[in-house]
Amino acid sequence: MHWVITGANRGIGLALTKQLLSQGERLTVGVRTSMPFEHENLKVLKVDTSNPVSIEEFVSQIEEPIDVLINNAGVLIEEKFPEVTEEGMLLSFKVNTMGPYMLVQESYKQGKLKAGAKIINISSILGSIASTGGTTSIPYSISKAALNMATKLLAHRLKNMYVVSIHPGWVKTDMGGPEAPLLPEESADGIIKVIRNLNQSGVFLDYTGKILPW
Ligand SMILES: NC(=O)c1ccc[n+]([C@@H]2O[C@H](COP(=O)([O-])OP(=O)(O)OC[C@H]3O[C@@H](n4cnc5c(N)ncnc54)[C@H](OP(=O)(O)O)[C@@H]3O)[C@@H](O)[C@H]2O)c1
Q1: In which domain of life is the source organism classified (predicted)?
Q2: Nearest protein CA to atom 42 of ligand 1, as residue
Q3: pLDDT digit string (tens) for 116-158?
């Protein structure tokens, strides 16, 4: 299968990329800088997911029809009430919400998505309105809640595909920090199994396949 992943140079995206390559899959990854390794089944393209022009160019360079698109790139700008800034809000929205939505829309417009394609928006439990008690970042939670709405709307529109949000767990990455209980490899392993077994659309799941409340 052909998988497309954004933010593949570190963290969860890197772990997903390594595991999928070891499973014999073909990948096109979108990164702002470069990948730490090369592989015959890995095509590396540049993308800044906060920029629609960059997204359009990225999609135009994807050569093979897409079986699985993983919107993984994300930012966590730690701002809390009452210190939230316009800058923090807008950058969070651009990377965490607009980027994933535009990447799906552009892939659709350019005819890159296969019938039956699986579209995975890497969201967060911090974007769940139903289970909100607090947050480490107001812009992050708001942008991931909006991403979940994008998942629902795209699932309604793309009836011949699967569109879901997945919470990867609390993962030891630059974003998750050293206290996180899960290794990127454990999260990636779970996410890949959930994607392979996916048989429903318009749902919010965690990396074990458990349904989460919106
Ligand atoms: N770690 C957790 O505990 C946790 C929990 C819930 C959800 N998540 C979600 O999981 C996903 C991956 O998180 P992570 O923990 O692996 O984070 P990470 O280690 O901070 O990596 C973030 C990735 O996103 C890329 N990125 C950020 N802004 C970008 C942009 N404008 N254009 C292109 N790429 C961009 C980064 O690229 P650069 O290297 O160029 O910056 C990097 O590859 C995110 O969507 C995050 O919100 C993580």
Answers
A1: Bacteria
A2: 7
A3: 999 999 999 999 999 998 999 999 999 999 999 999 999 999 9
